[in-house]
Amino acid sequence: MKLPILETINLGHRFANGRWGLKHIDLRIDEGQFVVIAGANGSGKTTLLRHFNGLLLPTSGRVLVDGIEVSKDLLRARKIVQMVFQDTESQIVGETVRDEVAFGPENLGLPRDKIKALVDKTLEQTGLKSLSDTSPHLLSGGEKRRLTIAGVLAMKPRVVVLDEPFSNLDYPGVKMVLEQLLCLHRRKMTIVLCTHELEKVVAYAQRLVVLSKGEIVADGQPDKVIGSVERYGIHPPCSLKCKGCLEPWLS
Amino acid sequence: MAELSIFTYRPRPVWIVDCDPRIKLAALAGLSICSLGAGWTALALVTVVTSILWLRLVPSLRVLWNQTKYFIFLLALVVLARGLLTPGQVLLELGPLDLTAEGLAGGGYIAWRLLVIVWWSIILTATTAAAQIRSAVAWFLRPVPLVNEKVVATMIGLLVRFIPVILQQVRETMAAQQARAVAASSNPFRRAFKLILPVVRRVFLSADRLVWAMEARCFTPDRPFYHLDRGPADWLLASGAVVLCAALLLS
Questions:
Q1: pLDDT per residue as tens digits for the range B114-127
Q2: Chain B within 8 Å of A126 (Cβ-Cβ)?
Q3: What HEC string does chain A produce?
């Protein structure tokens, strides 16, 4: 049997103030899946994502990336699993779009010519080539988010986890980012996205996991699980209410 | 889209942008030290040269005034304090304190010198990428024993990179407070206190988020340094700095 790319076994996380952020999380994510993790504010979505690349370590239980425990080799876990944060402003460290995309490959100690080739390719893929010498501060919200995605793609990860990637974006921004994610998924990249705005993305996902108060309360195919989300403080997509089915958000 | 301050580096069609960051740093240090003993005439000469350089970087000196006016206000307080606390020919009696001509002249001299040094520093940050500053600092610190030049250089590079972000946060917080009629409060200390607390809190939160984001992208201080190279513009800058230093020392 093929190993899952991400696996949590009875994962628990307790914060410094004694409150449990995650309890008894058992999750297996196979390579190439598009998984949406939904939950109300404070349900533990971000905490869970941070366990996938070792930014947080478990209080109890285990997190495995491609069969190896994250805490045993943090660098390996971070090379495989890359994370796009909710707040783009504090994720961007480069002074130009090119610098920002090069930040990750530079940390990996790659040779200069390889970094340049990787950065050029990533800028091309993400449609940011024409902006390569622009200051990230001058980009629109959607472009900034695409830049943060480009920054992690340049590290050649196998899994991209995204924390609320549509927050603070206008319609063109959401469209831009969603198209980018669908393109990555078509290229067999594993995508784990957490959001409380299911409307935009759930129709494209293969799996929907619902978190409430730090526990998994529903997990399965989106059309099977979606009916129960409202009771956990998540707004169900309008198409479900109006037409009784999930419809793609992009026309 | 964020507003760019004059402190923010961006590629500009000005020769100083392409200069070697080591020469720029050395010029800044030399001019700052030499200005300690400078006379009024030399200081005036340096101010004129700096203003000409400024006009190449910003559309008008009004922009420079707008972005440094709070610092200039602080300098005005320094002049006033010096004027009130230095004995000499009395110009104005203010209760128990006398405003003296010698005090005003001494305070004016200190404030002018500080202003010019700050202008040079802004020219450095506005025309030099943080990665270049980081490389230059590491180059200067390399021969110093017991100092990890890579860590120090990274810290300085990040500090320079985030000055504009912190200023943006100050502006946003001030705008939010003005919208809630903070100006109605007649106590300037209370107003300052109300501003400082949320700004400091935001800065620390941003720093936390930055650490998460850098760790997630496998950050290491052993990143490759910017390629440092000298060209004709560097000799022009170095010669100009030497001439100005000589003028400051001999005046």
A1: 988 988 888 888 88
A2: no
A3: CCCCCEEEEEEEEECCCCCEEEEEEEEEECCCCEEEEEECCCCCHHHHHHHHCCCCCCCEEEEEECCEEHHHCHHHHHHHEEEECCCHHHHCCCCCHHHHHHHHHHHCCCCHHHHHHHHHHHHHHCCCHHHCCCCHHHCCHHHHHHHHHHHHHCCCCCEEEEECCCCCCCHHHHHHHHHHHHHHHHCCCEEEEEECCHHHCHHHCCEEEEEECCEEEEEECHHHHHHHHHHHCCCCCHHHHHHCCCCCCCC
pTM: 0.76
Q: What is the pLDDT of residues B131-168, one digit of tens each?
A: 788 888 888 998 998 888 888 888 887 787 777 778 88
User: With an 8 Å Cβ cutoff, is A207 touching chain B?
Assistant: no
* pLDDT number for residue B104: 92
Rounded to 5°, the CA angle A177-A181-A183 comes to 115
What is the ipTM, given to two decimal places? 0.84
C-alpha distances in Å from residue B184, one per residue of A28, B172, B179, B199, B212 = 58, 18, 11, 20, 40
Q: How far is B92 from chain A (nearest CA, A)?
A: 49
Cβ contacts (< 8 Å) between B11 and chain A: which residues? 96, 133
Kindly state the average pLDDT of the residues A237-250: 79
Q: pLDDT tens across A10-60, in order?
A: 999 999 999 999 999 999 999 999 999 999 999 999 999 999 999 999 999
